[in-house]
Amino acid sequence: MNPSYPEVEQLLLGRWPETRLEPSLDRIAALCDLLGDPQRAFGVVHLTGTNGKTSTSRMIDTLLRALDLRTGRFTSPHLESMTERISIDGEPLSRELFVEAFADVAPFAELVDDRSAAAGGPPLSFFEMVVAMAYAAFADAPVDVAVVEVGMGGSWDATNVADGQVAVVTPIAVDHAKYLGDRPEIIAVEKAGIIKPGAQAVIAEQEPEVLDVLMRRALDVGAVPLREGVDFGVAARANGIGGQQISLQGIAGRYDDLFLPLHGAHQARNAAYALAAVEAFTGGRELDADLVRDAFALATSPGRMEVVRRGPTVLLDAAHNPHGMQATVEAVQDTFTFSPLVGVVGMMADKDVEQVLQVLEPVLAHVVVTQNSTPRSMPAAELGEIAEDLFGEDRVTVVRRLDDALERAVQLAETAEGFGDEVGGGGVLVTGSVVTVGEARLLLGGAPS
């Protein structure tokens, strides 16, 4: 008899956390071998980078399904439910199918754990288990193509037991510095590992040192580089109601008058990466313009510049590093005219908290600092001290419980209390962590993700 879904959650969470990296593919490769190498049963579009991976993955998935291809999608971390990490045909696995995927993998995982322990090594991690579950579920479905987002890095990421026909590298900046390095060009060496021999590599605009690393990797393995601004890109964009109107230059053709129901210039660029990846995967041919238009009109990206409430408007955005937060701030300023804008910020203690708050300081009239439910979350009081140094005491409120923090921020935005702004023009931005945003989304009743 299979375990229940809550039992599976606890069994997975009892393993090494995904934030703990042991640089080896030995365990996941051994597990996949025992499973019959399911990752070889379908085509793969593999994504790495610092920001934009999940949004780009979702758009690639939508485009591929518009081409009548059956898709699997693996993304991380999840916003609300662990099942979101593994999707088939655009829908997360049901709890029942998630349990079945775990039950299929678990006996073989025990064998790998035993072998690793005998050699003095660690057991399979949470992330390695979920990757194996995804690949097994995709092969069982079966899918035609899997859209796979790395968890951290590239070369040693568990997803990299698969060989992507297309590798997508979104913009690279500093994040997870403890594990990947404190300079973008160092991080790029690890991320370049998903570019495999003979693959096509869709490369976002990068710092020169980063681009050099990626181009050398492509040359070394005989991959074909496709560069933003050279081979593809955003040709035009203009804000519209509920999103933006964009024109994209693909690697095989130009696509005009596309409505993208997502906010921010960074999402337009993510759409360009997605389009180039799908053109590359389908042999470098131009796609039907109406098909592309219809697919992008269906794009969603929960927790990424997502409006979940009006009166006042509440925006959720999962930015959690300086590079991502800069894109968020630019998107808010480009798209909305909130006055005042009140922030609700809860961050993980291992993130670059001070720099993230520095990016937010010029645009927030007030910040309500809080914490999420995980042990990794920085205590609200500690986050408040850092915020007060940057914002000043009068612009910071510390509220430990997230639900109370949301209520306080909404009140401040509604009444423009103490800001001298027009009542009714305020907005709330909830940000700083995927977990914080996911928990806020549950509290605010966001649409299924």
Q: Which key features would you list for this structure?
A:
41% helix, 17 strands, globular, 449 residues, single chain, six-stranded mixed β-sheet
Describe this structure in words.
The chain has 449 residues and is an alpha/beta fold. Helices cover 41% and strands 18% of the residues. A hairpin with a 2-residue loop joins strand 3 and strand 4. The protein is globular. It starts with a helix and ends in a 5-residue tail after the last helix. About 1% of the residues have low confidence.
Brief account:
By secondary structure, the protein is α/β, with parallel strands linked by helices. It has 15 helices and 17 strands.
Topology:
Elements: H1 5-13, H2 26-34, E1 43-48, H3 53-66, E2 71-74, E3 86-88, E4 91-92, H4 95-118, H5 126-140, E5 145-149, E6 166-169, H6 177-180, H7 184-191, E7 200-203, H8 208-221, E8 224-227, E9 233-240, E10 243-249, E11 254-260, H9 265-281, H10 289-297, E12 306-309, E13 313-316, H11 322-335, E14 341-345, H12 353-360, E15 366-369, H13 380-391, E16 396-398, H14 402-415, E17 427-431, H15 434-444
Parallel strand pairs: 1-5, 1-6, 2-5, 6-7, 7-8, 13-17, 14-15, 14-17, 15-16
Antiparallel strand pairs: 2-3, 3-4, 9-10, 10-11, 12-13
Helix pairs in contact: 2-4, 2-5, 3-9, 3-10, 4-5, 7-8, 11-12, 12-13
